[in-house]
Amino acid sequence: MPSLVMPTPKWSGGPQPPAAVSAVGLRKSYGDKLVLDGIDLRIPAGSVFALLGPNGAGKTTAVKILSTLIAADDGQAEVAGHDIDTSPQAVRAVIGVTGQFSAVDGLITGEENMLLMADLHHLPRGEGRRAAAGLLERFDLTGAAKKPASTYSGGMKRRLDLAMTLVGNPRIIFLDEPTTGLDPRSRHNMWNIIRELVADGVTVFLTTQHLDEADELADRIAVLNNGRIAAEGSADELKRLIPGGHVRLRFSDPAAYRSAAVALGEGTRDDETLSLRIPSDGSQRELRSLLDWLDSTGIEADELTVHTPDLDDVFFALTSSSQPEETAR
Ligand SMILES: Nc1ncnc2c1ncn2[C@@H]1O[C@H](COP(=O)(O)OP(=O)(O)OP(=O)(O)O)[C@@H](O)[C@H]1O
């Protein structure tokens, strides 16, 4: 669906913020199955980027490449200014990765897991203990610190996993489906934790199948489909890409409602609620012309609301043509 691809907007406020992650033409196949077919990314430092895609779209593959766990077949990428091919160690030193390949060892306690991470980062013993205690406290795990991690709930394990990642004080964090399988309360806890990280200046690269999650957290969202980025933009920009948006005018005076309905011609009437639904992309230009028209005809609505399609609509519109699990190329 090439017509739906949105160019990344030009930065007009002086020098561009530095990119935490940038990639050009990333490609990856497994055997004859093409998983990533030329991915370009630019994620400004300090922002949250969400990579959305259906099952098997290649989200985890992208994270693995950018975090240097596997190599791309083609293309280039830099993370915090370090080339992933030529300086993988420098990349690993500045990133944290959590998600489907969790580092939590269930046989040892939460605290022991944390201390192990501190050792891996060569923190002196005292400093390691302090960092571990601080992070366990911050992630509400102090009470469970002496229990084996295998006894933790899904939400606690995710929090421990993220706490372990933070021992190294990474400036860029890859979160691969951070809330999959969590109950609503744990999801909201995780969202708050992610927001706190961003407030501290951390860049977050998130993969998710939850559209509300991308909507809540991400500054920019890219939809991955058939190995390519089908669309990229803020949640609002993406919602404007597909039809379904409308403006609703509600009246309390039946006479005003009727004359508006007649004058307007197009649109859907709801005689019960005295409201008119007018197709619109919700853009400033369309709203202005609607308001100008209302003014010129002397019609006064009691309420005007703009409805944009939600991310679900966008996601299904962009990915409905694909069956990535079955598509072998
Ligand atoms: N090591 C591998 N060998 C062969 N095929 C693989 C390998 N890893 C992943 N794949 C295939 O590549 C495709 C993309 O997988 P990937 O895990 O990146 O998708 P995803 O978007 O993260 O999906 P999910 O949301 O289900 O985790 C899938 O079809 C998967 O089966």
UniProtKB/TrEMBL annotation:
Keywords: Antibiotic resistance, ATP-binding, Nucleotide-binding, Transport. Residues 21-251 form the ABC transporter domain. It is a peripheral membrane protein. It is found in: Cell membrane. GO terms for molecular function: ATP binding. The keyword Nucleotide-binding applies. Pfam families: ABC_tran (PF00005). PANTHER family: ABC TRANSPORTER ATP-BINDING PROTEIN, DOXORUBICIN RESISTANCE ATP-BINDING PROTEIN DRRA. This is ATP-binding cassette domain-containing protein.
